[in-house]
């Protein structure tokens, strides 16, 4: 199964991707920065970035099994 996790350059997203890969799954950590091993460039606010990430993940695969949205976002009104 292929799993894509957004917002996974660090924190829980990174830990989740690493744990899933350790359990034998194919997990891609989506990051807006320069991708490293096990990462793909993925900015969910950019449709061309999403399309390119999907194309890369699906190259040689039939389907994405799961997508985990893990972007940490705090609305401005919630910031103190």
Helix content: 25-40%
Largest sheet: 4 strands, parallel
What oligomeric assembly is this protein in?
single chain
User: Which class of secondary structure composition applies to the elements?
Assistant: alpha/beta
Shape field: globular
Pick out the low-confidence regions: none
Strand percent estimate: 15-25%
Write down the overall mean pLDDT.
80
Total beta-strand segments: 4
Specify the number of helices: 2
Terminal-residue CA separation: 41 Å
Q: Give the strand line-up of the largest sheet.
A: 3-2-1-4
N-to-C SSE series? EHEEHE
* Radius of gyration, whole Å: 13 Å
Q: Which SSEs are present, and which pair or pack?
A:
Blueprint: E1 2-5, H1 11-22, E2 26-31, E3 39-41, H2 47-58, E4 66-68
Parallel strand pairs: 1-2, 1-4, 2-3
Give the tags.
80 residues; alpha/beta; 4-stranded parallel β-sheet; 2 helices; 4 strands
Structure in words:
This protein has 80 residues and is α/β, with parallel strands linked by helices. The protein is built from 2 helices and 4 strands. The protein has helices at residues 11-22, 47-58; strands spanning 2-5, 26-31, 39-41, 66-68. It has a 4-stranded parallel sheet. Helix 1 links the parallel strand 1 and strand 2. It is globular, with a radius of gyration of 13 Å. It starts with a strand and ends in a 12-residue tail after the last strand. The model has no long low-confidence stretch (mean pLDDT 80).
Please sum up the structure shown.
It contains two helices and four strands, in the order E-H-E-E-H-E.
């Amino acid at each position: 199964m292929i799993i894509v996790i957004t917002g996974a350059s660090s924190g829980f997203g990174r830990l989740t991707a690493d744990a899933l890969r350790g359990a034998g799954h194919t997990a891609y950590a989506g990051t807006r920065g320069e991708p490293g091993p096990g990462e793909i460039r993925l900015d969910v606010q950019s449709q061309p970035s999403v399309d390119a990430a999907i194309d890369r993940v699906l190259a040689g695969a039939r389907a994405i099994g799961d997508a985990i949205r893990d972007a940490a976002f705090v609305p401005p009104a919630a910031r103190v």
